[in-house]
Amino acid sequence: MTILIVDDHPIVRKGIHALLAASFADADITDAASLKEAEDLCASHHVDIMITDLDLNGDSGMTLIKHVRDIQSATKIVVYTMHEEPWTVCEIADMDTEAVVMKSDSASELTQAVKSLCEGKGYYSPTFFRLYNALRRQPNRLSDREKQVIELTAKGLSATDMAAQLGISANTVEFHRRRIMQKLNVANAAEMISRATELGWNANI
Question: What is the pTM of this model?
């Protein structure tokens, strides 16, 4: 397994490297200090898991994520960031990533995220969920991506089929479905479709 750590702070890269090396002895762990360096490494090496900050010395980690999705679609991505602003949390939630850990979390959360990805599961830290749930001042308001997920769920598509059609991972689809059910205060997919239909989910609800 190859893990790429992308962060513009040397002490952060070294800390993550030491943390993961202690838990994943067989992993090939490398790092990059910039968007360009990360892009070059991804272009020349297979990367199983990429852990990236969103601020890369003036460049955007979101740009890097989109680039990696284009050239290595199987790479699992962990966002590891200190940014807890509402708008950033919303942007992260709409991105195609398998895991999110905040830098305010304990170090064990990052290790757990990597373990979950190795098991084929997504991982979103409790801090990230707390921050995202705090945004529910408009609980019925759905993003465009969430509306797409509802529409495809209503058509009977599985998470895997939706992921293929939307160009995202199945874990990301499941994350959106959980968020939709939380927003609409429903317990399952059938109730989700029924409630969304009542609200007129094709409108800006």
Answer: 0.70
